[in-house]
Amino acid sequence: MRSDRHQSAPLGLKIAAAAGLLFLHLPILLIFVYAFTMEEKSYQWPPPGLTTQWLAVAWNRPDVWSALGLSVKVAAVSTAIAMVLGTLCAAAVSQTKFFGREVISLLVILPIALPGIITGIALRSAFSLAEIPFSFWTIILGHATFCVVVVYNNAVARFRRTSGSLIEASMDLGADGFQTFRYVILPNIGTALLAGGMLAFALSFDEVIVTTFTAGQQQTLPIWMLEELVRPRQRPVTNVVAMVVVLVTFLPILAAYYLTRDGDQVAGSGK
Amino acid sequence: MTTAVSFEKVSRHFGAVRAVDAVDLDIRPGEFFAMLGPSGSGKTTCLRLIAGFEQPTAGSISIFGERAEGVPPYRRNVNTVFQDYALFPHLNVLDNVAYGLMVKGVGRTERAKQAEDALKLVQLPGYGARRPSQLSGGQRQRVALARALVNKPRVLLLDEPLGALDLKLRENMQEELKLLQRALGITFVFVTHDQGEALSMADRVAVFNDGRIMQIGTPQDIYERPQTRFVADFVGSSNVLSPDFVARYSGKRRWASLRPEKIRLAEKAGQGVAGTVRARSFLGATNRFTVDAEGTRLHVITPAGQPVPEDGADVSLVWLPADLHLMDEPA
């Protein structure tokens, strides 16, 4: 959105805005700087010297790889589950009217509104009550609770903008349910699903709180980083990994932003 | 002779609302059939029952002799032109028109050829590459028509097809639809709340009110011989005369309809019905005024050019006895 007014903002406002942005982003830059420091035991400022050796050290640590591998797998599977369930739920809530529709809508969104610690504790006690041992799938279950929400939110917004008569038109022209989904619904909600999926992936990838309660002895990448910070040895390795996490989560979010920005054309507005 | 669409005691209830209530209906093959009624009268639900988007709560529907209950929309040889056209925004015009052929598995070149032919039929040749968003309302409507017709339906359903068009375009499309229907010989069923549209286009009209059909007949029938007060008033805003009033002038105590254009001003005072002119308006080709005759308001329409009485003038009104149409509705 552009304002037609071109007059410049007052100096004070400019300084405040710059200060605010610096406050938000300077710490992230510091993480990048410490990834290259010579000193490994404490975070000393200024860094005594710069080196790229920690990239190689991090590369050769098997615990980094196993944590990264687990995180990627968890994020991928949670996202896949969320995309299927979130889309189905969004379709049901936006396309049909049934008793309890608003309640279901609220219940689906609730996990993201609840503090993670509550979701975590709830899941943990549920698992122990049902005597389910911690596994890859318990982490997935925890992550899916909030991944479904982001996919659902994206999909439901797009469904609402897609005219219901498009689906009827497709059926009327001889397409069965599957064909209608493939040729009409998917092209209309595709970018919203992609954006939701990417957000879900990013959320899952750096999730700590729920994971703490549902992972048992397994280490996802964020959990591994927390543990590393306690040990005063090879600290910059954590920073190297942190840098990678920032990039891995930032790129999909950026992509999601660009993809949905162009999707503003309202489907079914053909009046 | 089989019927194109047949309703037997068809009802569709939504909870306590009887959207369609025990409707009997026979639509003949090749007919241009109009369902006319105010909004909420059940006409659109009837259309959706034929298309298969709704299932009847009770009764049975058959389309060309085949039972239609439980048959999903995609297995009915019936196509719909939607009120909002419902063109697929992610497809261009050609792919929109070819959609029905594509899902049936017709090859790419063949369906492109048939779609182009359908676009020619609706006078939009060469528009295939455009997006629906680049078309005007009238063009979108033609695309929606082509998209339905390319499937060679046995019945074409049109839901308020001209509702979103401006007056001039609407008049052109009325004529075009009529010609198209004659040329193709397909049964057209269209829903409208515009009585002028129904009368000018349809072979037969069904007038709906409160989920029931009030009267079915040719436009002339409906207009000249309305059976109920509702039909008389809804179609052409007739003067609906109370049994008491009618008893005074025709001797029978029945509700009656008297078309405003059938009433004339008496040349001599003392003739016919005396009254006072209350309001006048100039409508271009005609003049319209309201006369208060002993408590009954009569609308009168006279051709422009004839003298129009002043507001408040005392006049006498006359009509031919045959023009006073007695209705079936009990007094």
UniProtKB/TrEMBL annotation, chain A:
One of its GO terms (biological process) is transmembrane transport. Keywords: Cell membrane, Membrane, Transmembrane, Transmembrane helix, Transport. Residues 68-256 form the ABC transmembrane type-1 domain. One of its GO terms (cellular component) is plasma membrane. It is found in: Cell membrane. It comes from the Bacteria. PROSITE patterns: ABC_TM1. The keyword Transmembrane helix applies. The keyword Chaperone does not apply. Belongs to the binding-protein-dependent transport system permease family. CysTW subfamily. This is ABC transporter permease. It comes from Mesorhizobium zhangyense.
TrEMBL record, chain B:
GO terms for molecular function: ATP binding; ATP hydrolysis activity; transmembrane transporter activity. The keyword Ribonucleoprotein does not apply. It comes from the Bacteria. Keywords: ATP-binding, Nucleotide-binding, Transport. GO terms for cellular component: ATP-binding cassette (ABC) transporter complex. Pfam families: ABC_tran (PF00005), TOBE_2 (PF08402). The keyword ATP-binding applies. InterPro entries: AAA+_ATPase (IPR003593), ABC_SmlMolc_Importer (IPR050093), ABC_transporter-like_ATP-bd (IPR003439), ABC_transporter-like_CS (IPR017871), Mo/tungstate-bd_C_term_dom (IPR008995), NA-bd_OB-fold (IPR012340), P-loop_NTPase (IPR027417), Transp-assoc_OB_typ2 (IPR013611). Signal peptide: none annotated. Residues 5-235 form the ABC transporter domain. One of its GO terms (biological process) is putrescine transport. Belongs to the ABC transporter superfamily. This is ABC transporter ATP-binding protein. It comes from Mesorhizobium zhangyense.
